[in-house]
Amino acid sequence: MFKKLHIFLGATVADAAARPLHWVYDKKKLNSYIKGKKNIAFFKQNRSPFYSIKTGEVSGYNDVGQVMFKTLTKTTNHKEVIKLFKKNIVKNFGPGSSYWKNLSLRKKYKKIKWKTAMKGPWIHQNILETIKNIKLKKIITGGTKVNESDGYCASLPFYFSYNSDQKTKRIIRTVANGKISEQFALAKLKIIDLADKGDNDPINSFLRKNIKNKYFKNVIENIKKVKRIKSKPHNFVVKKFGKACSYPGTFNGAIHAIITSKSFKTAVIKTIKAGGCNCSRANFVGAYFAAYKGIKGIPQDWIKKTNPAKSIMKLIA
Predict the structure, then answer these.
(1) What distance in Å separates the CA atoms of residue 234 and residue 247, rounded to the nearest whole number?
(2) How far apart are the first and last CA of the chain?
(3) Closest to 114 in 3D by CA, of 122, 96, 250
(4) Are the beta carbons of 4 and 196 closer than 8 angstroms?
(5) What's the rounded Cα separation, in Å, for the pair 203 and 189?
(6) pTM greater than 0.70
(7) Distance CA 190, CA 167 (A)
(8) Please, what sign has the CA dihedral across residues 24, 280, 250, 114?
(9) Please, are residues 50 and 118 in contact by the beta-carbon 8 Å criterion?
(10) Parallel, antiparallel, or unpaired: how do β-strands 118-119 and 51-52 relate?
């Protein structure tokens, strides 16, 4: 079942590498933090302005994937996966969890007034809605207010275990119930799959295969936009398309990092330096290069620094 687990490992390591500098939107502040530093991955001091967790842990994005990974280790019956996944989402993110405990503190502040990073992890809008909808016993439980990477992160371990578009769409919609979230998540998975299968140019191959596919029309248009300014500096491109967590900006920034990089490490470092929601982009970039280069392409010292990597490595043949 877990023969493709190195791909999820790549996403996990990349997320952990970027996490201490997650959501730093102020470019001057980011530059001051990393100036003169040889190693900006796994930054020792938390510099995220909103929340603080130990270096080596992952953001809420990748943690959704960790919940799916743990779910898949408990059942081989795909019909039971979603039921158990929902149960584990509530357990990991809901009442009684460290994510949930920070909600009351967050409600006291608006972003413009935020002065000190709160201790503990940050629960995402999609997951808040998902927990609410699970309790309401809705059939499709994903959030609808934002189009972010939670659905992709949830589906990453699942897709390479079951390789079914229809089943994967159900997983995506379990935490991110929107057309845009589904399309961009599935596009990422298709691109990563091409990389895993040894395609020399996965991005262009995806374009050729889907140029007339109406389902991916929005995705295709955005990839073309990125390719038109491929020669521009990465920081410029990420700023142009948006540093925030939402699609299509987060997808476009990751695509540019992929097509202008030759290795896992250079692509992730580039992603971190661009600021903003680097973790959402890193989860795509890391998975892609793990698929493209194999597990040997992931820096071994980075794997050792990533806390959730230990349980993943135990199941990698």
Answers:
(1) 17
(2) 11
(3) 122
(4) yes
(5) 12
(6) yes
(7) 14
(8) negative
(9) yes
(10) parallel
